[in-house]
Amino acid sequence: MKIFTLILFALMYIGIIVFPKYKPHITGIAAVIATVFCVITGYMVWHEPFSGAINYNVVMMLVGIMITVGLFSESGMPNKLADKIITKIPNALWILVLLSVLSGVISAFVDNVATVLMLAPIGLAVAKKVKVSPIPVLISIAVSSNLQGAATLVGDTTSVMLAGALNMSFMDFFFMDGRVSIFWAVELGMLLTIPVLILLFRKNNQKIKIQPEQVKVTTIFPSIMLSLNILVLVVCSFVSIPEGFIANHVNGLVCMFFGLICLTYHIISAKKIQTETEDGKVSYSNGKKEAAKTVFGTIDYTTVLFLIFLFIIIRAVDRVGIIADISSFFGMIGDKNVFLLYTLIVIGSVIISAFIDNIPYVATMLPVIAGLGLSGNLQTLLCFGLLTGATLGGNITPVGASANVVAIGILNKHGYKVKSSDFFKIGIPFTLVAVLGGYALIWLCWGI
Question: Among 56, 265, 396, 413, which residue's Cβ finds the most Cβ atoms within 10 Å?
Answer without folding.
Answer: 396
